[in-house]
Write a structure and sequence with these properties.
The chain is α+β, with helices and mostly antiparallel strands. It has helices at about 15-30, 45-50, 75-80, 130-140, 180-185, 240-274, and strands spanning about 65-70, 85, 100, 105, 115, 120-125, 150-155, 160-165, 170-175, 180, 195-205, 210-215, 230, 235-240. A hairpin with a 5-residue loop joins strand 8 (about 160-165) and strand 9 (about 170-175).
Length: about 270
């Protein structure tokens, strides 16, 4: 049986042209220009920026404080400390499962007071930790209750909120009482590609008023801002860049182009094999 050559298939231009257009649109729309995700670019003024400008946190209504009293007489000191509760199955700071000690803490009420063990009501709103230690010194020493008292005081609910173009937006609590904005971003997984690093909004409540500040994290001078170190209950909002809207439009265009390519290919296959 003689070999019969295959027939050459010629596709009309009305079919080939849309395929080529859709292919190149899809190709170039997926190749966008990228920009480096940079922080604090440029020269550093070490004379100014080497000084840490973090201010001591102020005790506010709703804060939960851990206050432990020590002195030369442990037996006399014991009555001024809250009982430590041990919860089975808890997790200690080290991350090892097991029984974890939990201190109930002192809650600052709506009047700015705490009910301190054996001492009664103390007004603590507006005080720093150092000032609260002085207040306790005044009570213990003036009444000769303890000899050489000293204290361990920290916040149990030191928290802040991250919103916007953040990898993991939400509310975060830390065991200490000081964290800067870059550390907070790292804790939240950093900004997304479309987060504005030059215009980060900080909303802070202080003395019954709200304060707003916008920080440019691309400049070293941001470390000298009083808002670089966060305070408890700060709200951090990262805005999206204009490129995100363009990227969404680009994605839509790419999807439409891909769909057009698929439809055109199916139409060609149908024309060939029918």
């Amino acid at each position: 049986m003689p070999f019969k050559p295959l027939r050459r298939i010629c596709l009309p231009a009305c079919i080939v042209a849309p395929i080529l257009v859709a292919f190149f649109v899809s190709l170039f729309s997926s190749c966008g220009s990228t920009r480096p995700l940079t922080y604090m670019q440029g020269a550093f003024d070490t004379a100014k920026l080497s000084v840490i400008t973090a201010s001591e946190p102020i005790i506010r209504k709703g804060d939960l404080l851990s206050i432990i009293v020590f002195s030369d007489n442990p037996d006399a000191t014991r009555i001024y400390n809250q009982s430590v509760i041990t919860t089975a199955g808890g997790t200690a700071v080290s991350g090892i499962p097991g029984s974890a000690p939990v201190s109930p803490g002192y809650l600052v009420d709506e009047h700015g007071n705490i009910m301190f063990q054996q001492l009664g009501s103390l007004h603590v709103e507006g005080l720093t930790i150092a000032q609260l230690k002085d207040t306790l010194d005044g009570r213990f020493q003036s009444d000769s209750l303890l000899k050489h008292p000293y204290y361990s005081i920290r916040f149990l609910n030191y928290k802040f909120t991250m919103l916007g173009e953040i990898a993991r937006p939400g509310q975060f609590s830390i065991p200490g009482d000081r964290i800067n904005l870059l550390e907070a971003l790292a804790l939240a997984g950093d900004m997304t590609f479309y987060g504005r690093r030059d215009n980060v909004l900080i909303i802070r409540e202080s003395n019954g008023k709200r304060e707003w500040a916008r920080l440019d994290l691309t400049k070293p001078e941001v470390m000298g801002s009083p808002y670089f170190y966060l305070q408890q209950n700060d709200l951090v909002i990262v805005e999206q860049t204009r490129k995100k809207v363009a990227a969404n439009d680009q994605l839509t265009t790419r999807n439409v182009s891909l769909a057009a390519t698929i439809v055109s290919t199916l139409a060609i296959l149908y024309t060939i094999f029918r």
